[in-house]
Amino acid sequence: MMRGVAREPSDNSSLPDTALVGVGSAVVAVVCALPPAFLVHRTNLIGRRVVQLGMWALLLAPIYNLPVMHSLGIVLYGTTALLTIAYVAGALPNNARILIGPLSQLHDTLLTSARTHGAGPVTSWRRIAVPVLSRYIVWVWLYCFAGTLLELPVSQLLYPLSQFPLSVAIERRLSTYDFAGGTAMEVVSVLTALAVTGLVLGLYRLLAPRGWRNVGAAT
Questions:
Q1: Which of 4, 97, 115, 149 could tie 181 with a disulfide, CB 3.0–4.6 Å?
Q2: What is the pLDDT of residues 186-219, one digit of tens each?
């Protein structure tokens, strides 16, 4: 079954290229999801929902203003950059909603106690907020990476010429009745997602301080 995976040269790099884009998209999506989640749950800012939508609109602006960007000499259509932006924009709302729950576990008394003992805002977040949120951030990153790896609708619309994302390469195989090659690529992609998940969780368990690992863990 595996013989048909890389029969075409354009398919040879589909998995590593898509995985690389998925890693970058997941990092950017997690970083961009934290501020909206914080604004909605941890502040009483008037119009915070509008601010949240505005942040997402800024991210979507290059997609909906391609002619304007082109007139300014910025060519995005048919590039990996535009595909990455689209991946991030699609993952951002769900990531922000997922992070609202962990942020609700970060009680104000924890940060207040840290400030009472002389810690500044940055130190308080580094010593208290980061350990509480770290496990959830890792899982949100994995969720975004796995979703990007086989994302099809956006990939079909915006993939660069002759650089097929993994899902598009699989769809091309199946549409030409190459069921063996397409199925083999699906199996390899799922195994890749599982391998990356195991690797990231293993590294977190090995490298994260013990106190970080205990936060949110089953007793």
A1: 4
A2: 999 999 999 999 999 999 999 888 877 776 555 4
Nearest to 94 by CA among 56, 123, 60, 62: 56
Q: What is the pLDDT of residue 2?
A: 42
Domain boundaries, the chain: 12-214
Q: For residue 53, is pLDDT > 80? A: no
Q: What is the CATH number of domain 12-214?
A: 1.10.3720.10
Tell me, rounded to whole angstroms, the distance of Cα 155 from its chain centroid.
15
> 85: closest CA among 158, 169, 163?
158
pTM: 0.79
Q: Are 142 and 155 in contact (CB under 8 A)?
A: no
**Among 83, 197, 60, 63, which residue's Cα sits nearest to residue 151?**
83
